[in-house]
Amino acid sequence: MGIFTPKHASFDSHIERAKFLMVYRLTLAFTIIFFVLSIVFYKVEFYALISYLASFSIALGALIYLLITKRYQHLFLLFAVLGSIIAQFSCNFSMSTTHYVDFLWMMICALLAFTGMGKRWGLAILAVNTVGIAYFIFVRLNLHIEIIKPFSFVDSLGAFLELVLAIFVLSYLMYQFISFQNYSEAKLRKANFDLAYQNSLITAKNNENLTLIKEIHHRVKNNLQIIISLLRLQQSEIINSEAKAHFTEAINRVMVMSSIHQRLYKEKEVARIDLKAYMNDLATDLKTIFQNEKSIAVHIGTDYREIDLKTVVPLGLLLNELISNSYKYAFLSKQTGDIHILISDGTDQFELVYSDNGTWQEKPSTNGGFGLDLINILVEQLNGSFEFETNQKGTRYYFTLSKLG
Predict the structure, then answer these.
(1) Pairing label, strands 295-302, 336-345
(2) For a surface tag, which of 81, 101, 199, 310 has the fewest beta carbons within 10 Å of its beta carbon?
(3) How far apart are the first and last CA of the chain?
(4) How much is the pLDDT for 401?
(5) Can you say whether the dihedral through the CA atoms of 86, 91, 94, 97 is positive or negative?
(6) CA distances from 124 to 21, 129, 191 (A)
(7) What is the residue-wise DSSP string for 338-399?
(8) CA-CA distances (angstroms) from residue 105 to 173, 207, 259?
């Protein structure tokens, strides 16, 4: 360790260590140079000597404090405040010397405040020094011009040494600033590289999981299709028409769940489904099953764009029961008709309004039939409630349902 690189306490970061070394080196330079200037300006100019002695005393005290405590943070503020005071004092009371260097010291004080204490202190020191410069130029400058005398060699030497010191300090601060910036940029580049690498690992793992999940949905869909095929084989052996109808309903319910897994297999986001597209597919499948000649139009409207898996399964089964009931009971005596399905999205709940304009051969009820019992179960599963009304114009259901995902 050399004189300009002393032993220091361990710091948490490179920037902390660099700031400590910067304060130490500046303090050591101030101590040496202001000691020399105090000797040079001895018996030359009283107020200039006071400024240099004050600067030397502050620098020496700060150097001792820094070597003992290793605490550098407050020295930035100390140098910025006291340095500004000394520079302002020199401008307004040392009338026989030039003050070119005092303006440099004021700039250096502001830079020290910006570097060590942040923007707020830097702007405050800059504002104070700007006011001081304005006062000197508009109030004291003319008096200074009248009093100042030609410099002797010693005066010129002292002014030169102080200017060299100020330029050195200013250059060193700029060098440190660039070093901090380069270090920060290097750390940022490394952090970005590490993040990009981690992101690539996460993306690869996510793609792998996505493939596995899609494969699971595909296998579930295939298994449900096998169940549907077995049910259809069994249905072909049944003679009783009522039993066949029950098998058809069971097959339809399994098909609803199978279609959900089929759609999840095709979706980019396996946790959510395009609700309107799914409802259109469901309505088309049921229309094919229940009637080929009748003109029954299904009108679907929703602002609920994507729905989670937990919610879509009971909702799909619910819509299957409602549409199936309409086909089975509402349009037996009609060749045309309309079914309207409207879903309105909310924060935690959504509303489903289902209606048809058919003439029901069997009056819908909330208390009878497996299908209606299933509707009640599905509504309970969705933590919801519903009301319905029926008359000669058709039947209308009002559902308030909760999102489960």
Answers:
(1) parallel
(2) 199
(3) 63
(4) 92
(5) positive
(6) 25, 9, 34
(7) EEEEEEEE-SSEEEEEEEE----SS---SSSSHHHHHHHHHHHHTT-EEEEEEETTEEEEEE
(8) 12, 60, 78
C-alpha distance from residue 258 to each of 217, 225, 394 (Å): 9, 7, 31
Identify the bridge partners of residue 395 per DSSP, sorted by sequence position.
Answer: 356, 390
Residues in the chain: 405
* Pairing of β 394-402 and β 385-391: antiparallel
Are the CB atoms for 110 and 126 separated by under 8 Å?
Answer: yes
The tokens describing 148, both together, are 């100042």
Q: How confident is the model at residue 400 (pLDDT cuts 50, 70, 90)?
A: very high
Correct CATH for 292-405 of 3.30.565.10, 3.40.1350.10, 3.20.20.140, 2.60.40.3080: 3.30.565.10
Query: Burial of 33 by CB count in 10 Å (0-12 exposed, 13-18 middle, 19+ buried)?
Result: buried
Q: Which residue ranges make up each domain of the chain?
A: 14-187, 292-405
For residues 141 and 133, is the Cβ–Cβ distance under 8 A?
A: no
Nearest to 358 by CA among 385, 393, 403: 393
**More confident: 161 or 1:** 161
The three-class DSSP label of residue 286 is helix
- Whole-angstrom distance, CA of residue 112 vs CA of residue 118: 9
| Helix ranges, 70-140 (H) | 73-93, 100-117, 119-135
For residue range 265-290, list pLDDT tens digits in order: 666 666 677 888 888 888 888 888 77
The model's pLDDT over 340-358, given as tens digits with 9 standing for 90+, comes to 999 998 888 899 999 998 8
Distances (CA, A) of 29 to 63, 148, 174: 10, 29, 16
Question: Is residue 321 within 8 Å of residue 278, measured between CB atoms?
Answer: no
Structure tokens at 212: 């596995």
Place of tokens 């319910």: 253
